[in-house]
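cron nightly-structures :: item 1 of 1
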Amino acid sequence: MWLPYRLTQLLPTGPRLRKAWYGSPIFHGQRELKRRFTLASRMGMAASQRQPPAAGVTVARIIGNDLYPRHRQGQALINLQTILRNESSRDDWRKLFVLNRIVDEATQAQAASAVEAAGHDVLTIPFRPSEYQALRYRPELFGGADYFQSATFAAKDPFAQDRERIWACGDKIRYLMNINGARNQALQRGRVQSGWTLVLDGSCYITESAVTAISDDLSSDPLVPYVIIPMRRLEAGAEPEQADVSPIFREEPQIAFSADAREHFDENYPYGVRDKTSLLNRLGVPGPWCAWTPLAWYSESQTRSDERYLYKYGSAAVLRLTSGVNNGALEKPAAQMTRYRSRITAIFSTLMMVDRLCEAPDASSLSSIAGLPLPDQSEPAPAENVL
């Protein structure tokens, strides 16, 4: 029997039932009880076994390539300048900026110079064309390139298709976008020099009031290895210091790690497929990621962390600065799906551009895998000279 598409979305399929359960107040209540019980047990340890928080905080941000059309060309530099110029500082807070495989050498040099002039730390992870050129797409993980034009693939939902496409391009995405590799390097640096490391996305901004609140969160009981910090998107044109930073968990949060936290980011996940949420899931943090089914082609060695539930929530949010696209339209709450689709398109269009730049021998394989109308990158929008 044929039904209109909107009616089919109401049918009680397995994935929809999972989504309903993991989004329900009952499930969230269960997780909260488990978290509180775990923390109460930890607080009950003898005082001699509990370690006080070490001094100092490293705020680490990952600055990568602008991914067009998800970001406006030059937006990473614009947002970096906003952070360096306006964000408040504390004597016991260090700022680390990780320049993550930036393809354009001039852009990388501008960013490094600006950070150093502001008196902060720079960690550069270089992009080397020869290393990228040696990598290959791997459609054979799913049976070959023909699979992506098959009826079997076409029958899958669009999100499943996106995951498979990204994974088939995974080796190049892991290198070029290197999100979890950069996060782990930042985390390693922070653990050496500070008691806490906040691993933030590159365009995250911390207001003066949020700095005070988060500082209190990191030093107060219960002493935990992780603090889950909410994120709010800043609308275009809004002043960061005037923005609401009350803790609302509508967006994917950021994570603060104590120096003795044992977890890290799983570098097998490429940008665009559970790169941060896999860790949130292992820690037992409730969210949409709890409803996502395991990937058939990748089995995590540990799906539950030994430090599961050993986290608390931050009392103030960090702000995500604008991506500069469509006059800030992508920052609106209703634009979640538009943001998702533009991110997927941006991943493949960036691969196409860098394939051409590096004369990748398998560049033609991308179109058969991606199956998307990719933007023409022959004449990209000019980057602004903002630094």
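cron nightly-structures :: done
The first helix runs from residue 5 to 8.
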